[in-house]
Amino acid sequence: MSSIGRVFFGLSLAAVVGIPLGIVIGRFQTAQAILGPTFDFLRPIPIAAWVPLSIMLFGIGEIPAIALIFLGCLYPIVLNARDGVQAVEPIHLRAAGMLGAGPMQILTRVVLPSALPDIITGLRQALAIGWWVVILAELLAVRSGLGYMMIHAQQLWEPATIISCMVAIGLIGIAMNVLTGLGERYLLRWRA
């Protein structure tokens, strides 16, 4: 289904950019000082406000939809990764350094495992936001997917189709939540 593909593509791009960016912002005060205010400024702007600009820049089709999903998913990923990194106990960092761990080992063996619960929370939030944004994008800027089917059904006065799409959205949301919960339990099995 094109809606699911759009969400996962936009979410994947946001994760590839957002997780490292959040780690850098969380680890380095200079990055926090430069990028933190930028994210604080952009985060409250609703994704719907970006629709006209994305259509002007990219036209109608896949690219504006993916851009909107990417943007919607980016904020929770970056901010949760940042918060997870900043929550790492300083004593753990000092202990790893005293045991001879280098910066890369500290990052991979201390910081990332400690921040992983927050990173996963950011990914789960981003998935929910991505699903909301894809429907918005398909209502306004794409000619396929569940959102487009709903707007097309509205124009043809077919409420049954609209309700069917809404049920499909709900069922897909439940399935995504179950799958992400299983993935989270697997990745964080050490916590139990």
TrEMBL record:
InterPro entries: MetI-like, MetI-like_sf. It is found in: Cell membrane. Keywords: Cell membrane, Membrane, Transmembrane, Transmembrane helix, Transport. The keyword Transport applies. PROSITE patterns: ABC_TM1 (PS50928). The keyword Repeat does not apply. The chain crosses the membrane at residues 7-28, 48-75, 129-149, 161-182. It is a multi-pass membrane protein. Residues 1-180 form the ABC transmembrane type-1 domain. It comes from the Bacteria. PANTHER family: ABC TRANSPORTER PERMEASE PROTEIN MJ0413-RELATED (PTHR30151:SF0), ALKANE SULFONATE ABC TRANSPORTER-RELATED, MEMBRANE SUBUNIT (PTHR30151). Belongs to the binding-protein-dependent transport system permease family. This is ABC transporter permease. It comes from Chelativorans composti.
